[in-house]
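User: two proteins, same treatment. go.

Assistant:
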Amino acid sequence: MRKLVLSAAIVATSLVAATAGNTATFYSPQPLARSGYQAVDDVTMTVNKDVVVAVAPRGNSTGATLNAGTKVTVIGGTNGEWTHIQANGIDGYVPTNALSK
């Protein structure tokens, strides 16, 4: 009887040890995929170089140019390359690297 109880205890311990490692991996959260989109609504930024404003990301020019030092309001998110802004009655997109806080 002692051998049976001891054998059962060893088997149970082995099963718990074997599944404990798998459980931790099974339930570990995976990092979210980065989309590159960042919400930055209603943030005031400064244009750090003269820039032509586009009607859409990588789109045609609005015909407006913002000079370095111009304060703009970010009204939409940024996808990393282009940011939706408003300034001096102009509504359009500028390259994100042309903006600083």
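Protein 2:
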Amino acid sequence: MARLLLLSLLVAGCSSNSNQQITDGGSDANACPAGAPMTIPIVSAAHLDAAHGSADAMIAVPAGCWSSAQVTMHVKTQCKGVPPPNQNWPAACDPFDRLAQVSLADANTTALFLLDAVTSFGGETTWTQDVTDYASLLAGTHDYHVEVGTYADPAGKATGTAASHDVDVSLTLTPGPPPRAILAAVPLLRQTIVNATPPLTAMITAPAGATHARLDYFTSGHGGNGQPPCDEFCLKENDLTLDGANVYMDQPLSDCDSNCTQVPISGTSTCGGMTFNYACKENPTACPSSAVAARSNWCPSRIIAPIAVTLPDSALTGTHSVGLAIQMVNGDWPIGLSAVFY
């Protein structure tokens, strides 16, 4: 695991690194003047491969009033060029779609999912996730964890022999009045759910003065292919509860129909039982039928946006139990759950 150290300018008033951060979050334009955006690199030109698929960076972020806070991730694999003899792909090429994730991951705390995405098949992608409501958690010096899942086939058949991704991640802060007066932002759960995972629980306590509460839920199903066990392409019920009562119950599915801008090719290619005379701009090494197949809350080359779940008024005072369960899991579901009060 690569470990990077990058210290950015740190101004007075930094928060601690506890799980819950409290801020007055005022929207007074005089107290929170607008200004030019500032971009803080988290990792730059990180080379992630099968042996070293993640990078950690200890980053200092100034406290302040931010009208916008956005995490941007750029991922590229090199699949252009001529493969070595008796191989199918250039050495550095990873022609498959892989999970790409950024988390705030301080030791001895619950990690906060900041960005969740899936790489393109054999291409280059940039995603941006708004994290403005979590700006108070980012202030100070914290450990950021960046990961891209990669597999390298030593024979060069399924992938290049040194399949890898080059990764850049940054945080852009724009000074100004925040859109909401955030009273608390609380990471609750961050893990991968598999078949043996029992239902998960976490506790939340409403801060004084809260008038709105929300859960932000990252979820996507992978693997477990086949009939009937399948998590990538089959509907699986996701349940969130507050004190035992459902606040979210759905089988999240993403429509990927628009995920293949056709690029004409010389000749034809046959895959998935079909013949094509084009490739997909967004997913250049994908079988076109795979690029557009609906999946469990994700599409290749796209960001996985958190599902916002509004909590009832009962959550605005006192302490409550939040539950999370996914039904009939056969593959794996990386999840992240956090709560926001304002």
